[in-house]
Amino acid sequence: MKNIVVIYFLTLFVCFSCKKENENPILGEEVVTFKINKLPENHNFEEDIFISGDFEGWSGGKDQFKLNKKNEIYSISIPKYREQINFKFTKGNWESVECQLDGNPIENRTYSFDGKDETVNVEIVNWKTGEITESPSTASKNVSIFEDNFLMPQLDRQRTIRVYLPPNYHNSEDNYPVLYMHDGQNVFDKKTSYSGEWQVDETLDKLYEEKGFSIIVVAIDNGGEKRLNEYSPWNHQKFGKGQGMDYAKFIVNTLKPKIDKTYRTKADKNNTAIIGSSMGGLISHYTALQYSDVFGKAGVFSPSFWYSEEVFDFSKEHSNIKDLRLYFLAGGKEGGNPTFEGISKTAKDMDIMIELLKSGGFPAQNINSKIEPEGKHNEKLWKNSFEEAITWLFKL
User: Fold this and answer.
1) Residue bearing the bigger pLDDT, 269 or 190
2) Which residues form the signal peptide (predicted)?
3) What is the DSSP letter of 98?
4) Nearest to 387 by CA among 128, 133, 202
């Protein structure tokens, strides 16, 4: 009985803290308690440990998600807010995230809620620190930082922008199509990623060698704790104000003109694409429909249509677009506990969206959709489908 009372009040504390910060609240009565029962031998127990994941914007460590510590045992209880969460443990930032023994990154941890309260024992084998030999960059030599502190006037903040140039860029005078992507930390480089990389550069290098296809990729880093808000065009009663409209305006009115001025681009809509996953899928979907005069192609991977019902009304109003190509992707196990005959809610929402678009006049031949039965909500699913998506979008 005592344990139940403790979990109950801890749950209230976590939810109250989220609401107080106007950040990601957690809904529902089901609770999972993560208990860290094994840590590296050199762990300093005066340091705090945090849980960070998709349920709080991959911030790296928010105060309300700091683990409790008692007798050198760390623990925290997380109430359910959707079927599955992806997360890692840190000591307050991504520079101190848990890692493998050799210092290399680990895959995201996942937890699937199954209808009952549960305690999960966790083992952390190492922490990333300045003393650990960092894993080498996996980015191709044709990937570079366009600007570390690129001004986003629409949002009054700055962001790192990464650029991939085709292997033949400096040996030709050609102009190239451009692909814009979100979560830039995860696009090219395992070293900078917080949950695995898409290997977009390796895939495009391969497509250049095999098919002669060349494209410029502009990857925009996400804003950490601002990620959910920046990638949603609509407000959320719990998650806060949506800033996605301003984020999309930033891409269209500020970033794209600078890219077109700096590089030899094909600036027309037929040669301009946008791709993202999860909340990045949501903002890619919105941006492509809202600015169909700018973007002629979009990859909508594991879209977070659950975030706002407004996306369906918006899409219905913008469905009569004749010259936009959309590639949709979802995994059959995105929710951890698939329902709807084995298809997760992500896939079901995606299918609803596709039918809505078609009913509004969107040409069926301009939509390609794929459900990967074993696919989960992670970079592995998105990485493995990127080549197929880019090949179809650009009719290779």
Assistant:
1) 269
2) none
3) B
4) 202
> Residue 255 carries which DSSP code?
I
Give the tokens for residue 91: 């000591």
b (16+ CB within 10 A) / e for 286-322: bbbbbbbebbbbbbbbbbbbebbeebeebbeebbebe
Cβ(247)–Cβ(282) below 8 Å: no
Calpha distance 310→7 (Å, rounded): 35
Dihedral pair phi/psi, residue 242, rounded to 5°: -75, 130
Using alpha carbons only, how large is the chain's radius of gyration in Å? Answer: 21
CA–CA gap between residue 315 and residue 56 (Å, rounded): 27
Identify which of 175, 196, 173 has the alpha carbon closest to the alpha carbon of residue 185. Answer: 196
From residue 139, how far is each of 146, 184, 204, 292, 383 by CA, in Å? 14, 12, 12, 31, 14
d(CA 275, CA 180): 6
* Secondary structure (DSSP) of 185-236: GGTS-TTT-SS----HHHHHHHHHHHH----EEEEEPP-GGGHHHHT-SS-B
Which tens digit of pLDDT belongs to each residue from 311-331? 999 999 999 999 999 999 999
Q: Identify the H or E element spanning 287.
A: helix 279-290
CA distance 177 to 218: 11
Contact status, residue 190 vs residue 196, Cβ threshold 8 Å: yes
CA 180 vs. chain centroid, Å, equals 14
In percent, the amount of the chain with pLDDT more than 70 equals 88
Residues in the chain: 396
As given in the structure block, the two tokens for residue 396 are 């290779």
SS3 of 135-166: the string is CCCCCCCCEEEEEEEEEECCCCEEEEEEEECC
Neighbours of 187 (CB within 10 A): 30
Task: Enumerate the β-bridge partners of residue 152.
Answer: 157
In the beta sheet, which residues pair with residue 214? none
Instruction: Return the closest-CA partner of residue 125 out of 49, 41, 52.
Output: 41
Above 50 in pLDDT, residue 20?
A: no
Q: Report the DSSP pairing between strands 84-90 and 50-53.
A: antiparallel
Confidence band for 285, pLDDT divided at 50, 70 and 90: very high
Instruction: Report pLDDT digits (tens) over 318-368.
Output: 999 999 999 999 998 886 544 333 346 889 999 999 999 999 999 999 999
Question: What are the structural domains, with CATH classification, of the chain?
Answer: 2-123 (2.60.40.10), 143-393 (3.40.50.1820)
Tell me: the pLDDT tens digits for 178-201?
A: 999 999 999 999 888 877 899 999
